[in-house]
Design goal:
The complex is a heterodimer.
Chain A: H1 3-6, H2 12-16, H3 24-33, H4 54-72, H5 77-82, E1 96-106, E2 112-123, H6 127-132, E3 139-150, E4 159-166, E5 172-175, E6 180-183, E7 186-192, E8 202-207, E9 211-217, E10 222-225, E11 229-233, E12 237-245, E13 248-263, E14 273-282, E15 286-295, E16 303-309, E17 327-329, E18 333-336, E19 340-341, E20 346-347, E21 349-354, E22 359-365, E23 378-387, E24 391-398
Helix pairs in contact in A: 3-4
Chain B: H1 5-13, E1 22-25, E2 28-31, H2 40-43, H3 63-72, E3 80-81, H4 82-88, E4 110-114, E5 120-124, H5 127-130, E6 131-134, E7 137-140, H6 153-160, H7 167-183, H8 197-206, E8 251-253, H9 255-259, H10 270-289, H11 301-314, H12 316-319, E9 332-334, H13 335-338, H14 343-348, H15 353-361, E10 368-370, E11 375-377, H16 399-402, E12 411-414, E13 425-426, E14 431-432, E15 434-436, E16 452-454, H17 473-483
């Protein structure tokens, strides 16, 4: 179905590298990608596009044009079909694609961490790109990375990186042959296990200057498509790795997910309905994926759906071959808590109940008014889980309040 | 010999009866079925329950105009904005080439409608339930027995809202989404394939003033039970012969008036209903012009000829005659005779009376009336081969099982989720391939749990209609062969 296509995650942090709001590409960015929010508000200082180096502005403009062209004449039908082989990592024909990796982990002392890494590639080739750029470039690759402690400890500092680069300069790159994406010191590599009988078994290695993680996938991702976009969502994967920085040496272990999408993202900036999402690791008990639809108007029903997969063994890293297939949560209610961040723009607390699985937990965001940053269309935040179960998770909340429409043209 | 059908079939239940020719039950003389040729039904049709539905006046219409209206007019006036629908279903399999412009790209079950703001809307028409692809061709009038109402309808519609953009589109979408949200709890089924249309209409009635059609957020009468009774969608070509609409024959009088109650999702005023009423007689005329599809496989005509004789002896008193001498009695068979699931009837004479009253006080009742009976109409069997599963609740997967009640599966699962494939059609039993789960509890491959039909659930029972049980195997084969010719 279409819902995923629409629940496109994203944050403005992602594209801030290329230029903040008040700028025409924001419209397209926000509207089409749902990756950007161009509205003002929140505590983060907003800069004018004029404040940015000329080169960035021009680059951003090219991206805006690229996206606009995509939306106006999506020529995607063929390649959507062609590109749907799960083995493909880099989609050569796709003008826009993203990878979202989420990891929820514990270290050897039981402290919790959350890592998000979003990668996006956009093909921008056209005459304008060549005319504007001093170095011809055809692709832009962008990274948004965040590793943070969850649950009030301070074993590490929150570490965020946003970066975008032009593929042409080899500062970033994609290689279908090697199943590799890289940008600066961040490299993601996919290895498909060809030797196994089971299809879809693969691993993803994420290497950053401090963190090395291995995501192991044992089951096929589900594939969903709307007319111009295709999204695959993985089941929960096993994550293991280590973090080394300034003498700290953490052994990490937990759960992860990958969402992969390519195509032309629909315009969700003015949509009647938005989606909130959650990925939860109820340690030793269950992995949960949730989705909730919510009307922008605030009226009407909020409808939560979700699935749970239970580890077959108790213990920490037991996602694997014996993991049970995910089952549908039939009575799930995912409600906003009262606590709000950013002058009533989004809740920082949620309550999740599922009587048939005896789940009743409160999810508390790591974001505080101080750290919340600017207003994003989709706020992807790590949460600590307390209540009938404990754990760590991510909530993606679609911000519908406090956005000013910043519509150029 | 005066026969009480009721007693006769009570007797069929008890196997001992089948040995004797005659016995006295409760002081009445009873003829017992021992075989089809010696059947009381035909021999003594004058003693059948006399609830024969009389014909009623129908408003004249034009069939060509009716089809045009059906696929071009705003039947239901609300829906999903066209721009969103195009993203949801970019390449529908079945469209109407006779439609013009954007409408030509829309799926057969959607009409292009414009609201007051000028928003183009894809709104569903009657064909959502009343047409189905059969072996790769769309058959208008064939009830779609493969619709999946097991999920929350509101969830699906809410999701579509993510593709809706801007003020006026949002307004149009919200009207539709609000209506669906109001009725969603009443139209969720236990099993895919069966239809919630009755409850759907009741839920809409509950929110409306019958006189001026005004919508009230809070229901004005008690809403129907959330466990919607399952109904199989009857094929439209039956209306050629039927004097009354629906399984209980409750739709009496002017059929066009009654049909329109299937389109009241967003008909919020007397004017809205008048607009529908203006095209209703044409649509009715079109519906009555529809011919059933012809059986596409081989038929053993000698066997079919033998079957005709058996059928006329055993079945015709209720189901009529076909071929050169066409007759159809329009008979309501009392529930204690037919013995099929009584839930529809229990509801109609219980809490459902509120909806009977609603209709009979409504502006639809000028020429029509809802008048349920304590029985089910024995339907015309034209094109019956194409309409599996059988009985009013779709509880019996094949005609062979219908005609041999001990062999009916009590827990079964569809093997297919559409009527597309000829290889999935069982030509010897007349029905779609299914898996009998009672004999094969492990069979979990293929289609999922939603497609399991559990006859133990209230409303889903597969009892009754034991009129084929007394047939010999050879007679049953012959009757089945004959039914292919109808």
């Amino acid at each position: 179905m279409v819902e995923v296509a629409l629940s496109f995650y994203g944050s403005n942090r992602f594209w801030h590298v290329l230029g903040r709001c008040k700028y025409r590409f924001c419209l397209l960015g926000a509207a089409t990608l749902a990756l950007t929010a161009c509205s003002e508000g929140g505590s983060q200082p907003t800069r004018n596009a004029a404040d940015y180096p000329d080169q960035f502005r021009q680059q951003a403009e090219v991206i805006a044009q690229g996206l606009k062209r995509l939306r106006e004449s999506p020529s995607t039908k063929d390649w959507l079909v062609d590109s749907s082989t799960p083995a493909a990592f880099v989609q050569p024909g796709a003008p826009f694609e993203t990878w979202l990796f989420l990891a929820l982990m514990r270290d050897q002392h039981g402290r919790r961490y959350a890592m998000q890494q979003r990668l996006a590639r956009l093909k921008v080739t056209d005459e304008r790109a060549e005319a504007i750029s001093q170095w011809n470039f055809s692709d832009v690759l962008a990274l948004d990375y965040r590793l943070e402690p969850v649950g009030g400890h301070s074993a590490i500092d929150t570490h965020t990186v946003q970066q975008a680069d032009r593929v042409a300069l080899s500062l970033a790159g994609t290689s279908a042959a090697q199943s590799k994406l890289w940008i600066g010191g961040f490299t993601t590599t996919k290895t498909t296990k060809k030797t196994t009988q089971r299809q879809c078994e693969a691993s993803y290695s994420i290497q950053t200057p401090q963190l090395n993680l291995l995501f192991e996938q044992f089951s096929c991702a589900s594939e969903q498509r709307a007319s111009t976009i295709l999204v695959t969502r993985s089941e929960s994967m096993r994550v293991s790795g280590e973090y080394r920085f300034q003498g700290r040496d953490l052994v990490l272990d937990g759960r992860g997910w990958l969402e992969r999408a390519w195509g032309v993202p629909p315009d969700t900036n003015q949509s009647a309905v938005v989606f909130d999402r959650a990925w939860l690791w109820l340690e030793d008990t269950a992995d949960i994926q949730l989705q909730r639809s919510r009307r922008r108007s605030g009226r009407g029903p909020m409808i939560s759906t979700g699935s749970v997969s239970k580890p077959s063994l108790s213990g920490r890293s037991d996602v694997g071959r014996d993991q049970t297939a995910p089952s549908t949560l039939t009575q799930v209610v995912f409600a906003d808590g009262a606590a709000q961040i950013g002058t009533h723009t989004f809740p920082s607390e949620f309550r999740l109940t599922e009587p048939s699985h005896a789940i009743d937990v409160v999810l508390t965001s790591t974001h505080t008014p101080e750290t919340a940053g600017g207003i994003e269309l989709n706020r992807l935040m790590a949460v600590a889980i307390e209540g009938s179960h404990t754990g760590v998770g991510f909530v993606s909340y679609a911000v519908t309040k406090g956005l000013t429409s910043d519509v150029p043209e | 010999m005066k026969v009480s059908l009721l007693l006769m079939f009570v007797c069929v239940f008890i196997s001992a009866c089948q040995q004797s020719d005659e016995q006295d039950l409760n002081g009445k003389q009873v003829v017992v079925t021992t075989g089809a040729t010696d059947n009381a039904v035909s021999a003594e049709s004058s003693s059948l329950p006399t609830d024969l539905i009389p014909a009623s006046m129908q408003r004249a219409g034009d069939a060509v105009a009716g089809k045009h209206a059906l696929i071009n007019q705003p039947i239901v006036s609300c829906g999903i904005p066209l721009s969103a629908m195009k993203q949801l279903d970019a390449n529908p399999l079945y469209t109407f080439s006779e439609r013009e412009g954007e409408a030509a790209q829309l799926a057969y079950n959607l009409n292009l409608v414009e609201d007051e703001q000028g928003v183009q809307i894809a709104a569903s028409n009657c064909l959502t339930c009343h047409a189905a692809p059969l072996f790769g061709e769309l058959v208008i009038g064939l009830g779609n027995e493969f619709l999946d109402f097991t999920t929350n309808a509101s969830a699906v519609v809410e999701q579509s809202g993510a593709l809706v953009s801007g003020e006026s589109e949002t307004q149009a979408w919200e009207k539709f989404a609000n209506r669906i949200a109001a009725i969603a709890p009443y139209i969720q089924m236990q099993t895919a394939g069966v239809n919630p249309a009755n409850n759907l209409t009741f839920a809409l009635m509950a929110h409306r003033d019958p006189q001026n059609m005004q919508w009230h957020e809070e229901p004005l009468i008690k809403p129907p039970p959330q466990l919607a009774p399952p109904v199989s969608v009857p094929p439209w070509w039956r209306m050629k012969k039927k004097h009354a609409m629906f399984w209980m024959g409750e739709g009496r009088g002017d059929h066009a008036s009654i049909m329109m109650t299937a389109a009241i999702l967003c008909a919020d005023s007397k004017q809205d209903v008048q607009k529908l009423d203006a095209i209703a007689p044409d649509i009715r005329t079109y519906i009555e012009s529809i011919e059933p599809p012809v059986y596409p496989f081989e038929i053993d005509s000698t066997l079919a000829q033998q079957g005709k004789k058996v059928f006329e002896d055993t079945c015709s008193a209720c189901h009529g005659t076909y071929g050169e001498q066409v007759s159809y009695p329009n008979r309501i068979v009392p529930i204690d005779v037919v013995g099929t699931d009584p839930s529809l009837i229990e509801f109609a004479f219980g809490d459902g009376q509120a909806y009977v009253e609603w209709f009979n006080q409504s502006l639809f009742a000028e020429l029509a009336q809802v008048y349920p009976s304590k029985g089910y109409v024995a339907p015309p069997l034209d094109g019956i081969w194409a309409t599996a599963p059988f009985l009013h609740n779709g509880s019996v997967p094949t005609i062979r099982a219908l005609l041999n009640s001990p062999t009916r599966p009590s827990l079964w699962r569809h093997e297919v989720t559409d009527s597309a494939s000829k290889t999935q059609f069982n030509q010897s039993d007349l029905g779609w391939n299914f898996i009998d789960l009672a004999n094969n509890a492990e069979a979990s491959a293929g289609v999922g749990a939603a497609w399991v039909y559990d006859t133990r659930v209230k409303g889903y029972s597969n009892t009754g209609h034991q009129f084929g049980d007394g047939l010999s195997a050879a007679q049953r084969d012959a009757v089945i062969e004959y039914l292919k010719t109808l």
